[in-house]
């Protein structure tokens, strides 16, 4: 028996990523695919710039993951639970480009969906967007949702 196609969606809570989820689910319905939502928490994003003489900032990984689950993943699972599409999720730490690329490769995903922009326009401008980088690296079709 052939395994169901797998569509991975990079989610970050932005309106662009929410549209990417919608696009993936709509296609999954037509193609009997499963959808995996992946939210990548970057260490760098949540570490404030430290001033000399201040206490080092300790990242509470559990708390950060709970917040991501509550604010980003759970609302999406709720919204699409009646669609008949099998939806799973992962919360991972690291660089979104590397993490999404590794997941897509490791899980032999058929397509990768993501919003064309992320939550931070400034960071997009600074780093060149995650979407752009992953499109060059992925090795599978990447759908950049406007």
From TrEMBL:
> InterPro entries of this UniProt entry?
Rossmann-like_a/b/a_fold (IPR014729), Universal_stress_UspA (IPR006015), UspA (IPR006016)
Pfam families, sorted: Usp
* CDD domains from the UniProt entry: USP-like
At the top level of its lineage, which domain of life is listed?
Bacteria
Q: Which residues form the UspA domain?
A: 8-146
- Supply the PANTHER family for this chain: STRESS RESPONSE PROTEIN NHAX (PTHR46268), UNIVERSAL STRESS PROTEIN UP12 (PTHR46268:SF6)
Q: Which family does it belong to?
A: Belongs to the universal stress protein A family.
Q: What's the protein name?
A: UspA domain-containing protein
Annotated organism of origin: Thalassotalea loyana
Q: What is the lineage of its organism?
A: Bacteria, Pseudomonadati, Pseudomonadota, Gammaproteobacteria, Alteromonadales
């Amino acid at each position: 028996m052939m395994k169901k196609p797998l569509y991975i969606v990079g989610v970050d809570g932005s309106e662009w990523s929410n549209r990417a989820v919608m696009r993936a689910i709509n296609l999954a319905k037509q193609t009997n695919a499963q959808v995996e939502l992946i939210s990548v928490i970057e260490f760098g994003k949540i570490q404030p710039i430290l001033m000399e003489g201040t206490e080092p900032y300790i990242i509470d990984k559990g708390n950060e993951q709970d917040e991501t689950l509550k604010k980003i993943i759970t609302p999406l699972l709720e919204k699409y639970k009646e669609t008949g599409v099998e939806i799973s999720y992962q919360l991972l730490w690291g660089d979104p480009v590397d993490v999404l690329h590794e997941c897509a490769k490791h899980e032999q995903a058929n397509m990768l969906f993501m919003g064309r922009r992320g939550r931070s326009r400034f960071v997009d401008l600074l780093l060149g967007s995650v979407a752009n980088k992953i499109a060059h690296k992925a090795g599978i079709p990447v759908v950049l949702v406007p």
